[in-house]
DNA sequence: AACTAACCGAGACGGTACGTCTCGTCTTCGC
DNA sequence: GCGAAGACGAGACGTACCGTCTCGGTTAGTT
């Protein structure tokens, strides 16, 4: 966290500080992210304005504008902080078990629906803002893609998945189904749904013939 | 179209109509939808304000507020009008051909990316507005789901798809992959992608064993 | 009343009626004036809008615009109707008694302060609208000036007032004092005030030397 | 001027002032008053809207609403600023000369009729707004009343006016005649009118018998 | 009795201004 | 020089009325 490197939406953390200058206030930084996280859980994305974040954080507006480019940048960092902790890489020795683990975990996150408005809001802004779009992919999507890809690759190397399969398309279909169900259909992501996805993946890409699922 | 019935985001088209009252102006109605469509193609969702729509349409603001509840309602109707015409039901006598037809058509619409910001904006607002969410599903998703379901069911009845398959999950995965790629990854929806989806669906749900890809 | 002639603020009462035409609705006319009078007693001049008058009178807006040029014209007619009845010409055989009668009567009207906002509002508009200014003078001031002039002239012809006096200035000072006190100072128009005016007029223009007030 | 203390129509000039706050902008304050003064000279009172003042002053609307309660409050301060400079206290050693001086001066102000619509507009609003009424009296009437009262009192102490006279009524009649002529009759305030008022005052309250004012 | 024009109620229309809200910037202090 | 406070120019919000315009429906007079 803490501007953790080189996100273009942050403005960096005052490198090469001049003599006499106070450095970026850790207290203010955290207060702002916490305030943003609280507010996005209380009201619609469009009502989480910079002024409200500043007031909640007990901070001047300028302190926010000094370090972030927009409210989207603040919320992006706040969301990324939430997501970051939540993508463990399961390792149960079996592709199906790992995939189930992964899906359960990620569905639990979506079902905790508090973050949906934030994510949809960021998604919407990202359509018109290339920088934000890039940050969205890097900070909210990539970690999960990396984890899922690792699981899939382990499945291939263990011989549980057929080797010729296009992992990208499988990943798009798995993740896509989750996002589509949550944001678009607003349908629940329950156990049955998870099992159906697993079944579909195994039928399409598993090394066992699909016949066992439908004995013909 | 034209308030086509009972959308709660519209306010109805001249309800009851007292004696002598002037009825809703068709000219204004169309000008507003056209202006909204134009503007959403020109700038970010958040910058398409009611005042701009009214100005562009040569209409008083009140005329918009008289018939719609919010800018989202206007844009929803404008988007629905665009989508409405574009979902033909292909019938080529073969599941794969029909599915390819359908995917090519829908991908072409997405690639004609003009409507993406609008749709993402509506999607974001729908997270916090149940009425809007319902309208989003009914007017932007359902037509396509119906078409795809028909294609899938024909595949089953023709014996091209296994009968036990959960069509809903397949639909979520197909549509999900499209939306995910477009809005989230901003990756192109090209021919290769379409073929990969078809291959994956056939492998998972087709009656022919996937053996050709994995000769076993 | 009833457009009583040729006020340019009214638009006349359907002259030279064509065959089959319905003439001006007496019911609507009266309802409008009554509604205007009621409203001006209930709220500030600026809040007495045409729409409110129409709604109160149970009348379409167009019916008002058909017969009057503006809300000021409506209120002018309503005020004139109130004022018209209230300027009797006293005749007690003595200038002082007549003047006292007149002043008491007119002060009672002003003290019934309900009409002050209306009159001040019309006065304000009259500053920028010559037609309205003329109507204001003709319909709200002239009747009283005529009565007061008659009283003064009778005083002169009876030998109670000195003949050389400029009656216009006396009239301006008397009426001016009333208006100034009411609209500007918002001070009461009580008996003492009336007597002081009478004393001042008699001292300045009476044929008896003012010595009685200051025996010197 | 400049919010000179405690006018309730103003909202005070940066009350208390927390640490670090920016204080009221002198530039904006003056620009607003100037814009209001210009506009009221260009168009009817009712057309001098806040938006026009803000636009003319190159100022946000909120900056006006932050410091004044209404357009009337702005115009009141603008008018008061105009009036303030223009009430010198004459001192020619003689009551008649002083009174003539005073009347000439005040009539010149009224004849410069640019301010009439503003003053009548404020007067009208003051009928329904106690705060505004009070401000009107304090800031537009009182200075003049004070000057005139001083002139009258000097007349009494010099023996030019009879001591028993009620100065308030004389003041009401003098000022009343001016306002009545200007706003109501829209008659000119010329030299003859001034002389007639003086004659009438001297006849009614002077220590010389009135006879000498006419022939002699 | 049928015709017919103007009046009537209702209210939608293109507009202007309202007073409020939030934006992102700028200014001033105190630490 | 950072951080708080908050004034500033800007402009969209949703509402209230403006004055104009169309609607049917009603109401007198001719014909």
Mean model confidence by pLDDT of chain A: 84
Count of structural domains of chain A: 2
| Low-confidence residue ranges of chain A | 1-5, 14-20, 210-216
Could you tell me the number of beta strands of chain A?
A: 0
Distance between the termini of chain A: 53 Å
Instruction: Based on the coordinates given, report the CATH architecture of the largest domain in chain A.
Output: Orthogonal Bundle
Q: Which two chains have the most extensive interface, and how many residues on each?
A: A-B, 56 and 56 residues
Oligomer: homotetramer
- What is the class of the largest domain in chain A in the CATH system? Mainly Alpha
Envelope shape of chain A: elongated
Count the DSSP helices of chain A: 9
Elements of chain A, N to C (H/E): HHHHHHHHH
Keywords:
Tetracycline Repressor, domain 2; mainly alpha; homotetramer; DNA-binding; 9 helices; 2 domains; Arc Repressor Mutant, subunit A; 216 residues
Summarize this entry quickly.
The structure is a homotetramer of 216-residue chains. With 216 residues, chain A is an all-alpha fold.
Write the layout of secondary structure elements.
The structure is a homotetramer of 216-residue chains.
Chain A: H1 26-42, H2 50-57, H3 61-67, H4 71-84, H5 95-111, H6 116-126, H7 130-157, H8 167-185, H9 191-205
Chain C binds a DNA duplex (31 and 31 nucleotides) through residues 14, 17-25, 28, 49-52, 54, 58-63, 65-66.
